[in-house]
């Protein structure tokens, strides 16, 4: 073996992937030539192919697309959207604004879907061991709170008494379950969690967009960590739209509060530096 061949092999082995095969004049994703995918496969189907390795069925693609549409935007009151708009008023570019915004989609703002899947799957595992759904959900919630605290991810909303996106997404799951396209197990778990939260709190703590998309992602078999990535993918559309709108509107150095509004200062009273 020549020294050149050895170096070529070392270079080829530096990165290993099953996602893309590419050489001059050829591009294949998981074996599919790109020219056969273009014009035949939708974006949601491409997301599935790239993350799961196979093309989805029409039913699977439709449910995934529903989650991507549902989580696109929630206005400038959402930190990610506000950050994108503020970045544009600081003279940033669209890509800088998008990166700044996506970087804050973390455990609290953006991570609830991943956490909800973890909760649902823990409860589903308990179901397989036996027990009624109400019993198992109660045990699952108790175990979750013991490990993670009182917040149950995917339920309740600080702005919407009822998140208008959640019932629609669950209805799509119900329809798919009736057709035998998904099991409906996770929709049942989510509804029982919702029922028990209301019974405990004495008021509705309804399913929100994170909990509803988590139902679909779980029904479709997505690993929990991918749920956060899918949320980022969806919300990036709204982030782009708001960043572009802000660029078109103009404005300079817009912070989180309107001009003339000041924060609540709670430090030391006015004082002077002593000469001693």
UniProtKB/TrEMBL annotation:
Pathway: Carbohydrate metabolism; tricarboxylic acid cycle; isocitrate from oxaloacetate: step 1/2. Pfam families: Citrate_synt (PF00285). CDD domains: CCL_ACL-C. Its EC number is 2.3.3.16. Keywords: Lyase, Transferase. It comes from the Bacteria. The keyword Mitochondrion does not apply. SUPFAM superfamilies: Citrate synthase. GO terms for biological process: carbohydrate metabolic process; tricarboxylic acid cycle. One of its GO terms (cellular component) is cytosol. One of its GO terms (molecular function) is lyase activity. Belongs to the citrate synthase family. PANTHER family: CITRATE SYNTHASE, CITRATE SYNTHASE, PEROXISOMAL. This is citrate synthase (unknown stereospecificity). It comes from Halomonas salipaludis. The lineage of its organism: Bacteria, Pseudomonadati, Pseudomonadota, Gammaproteobacteria, Oceanospirillales.
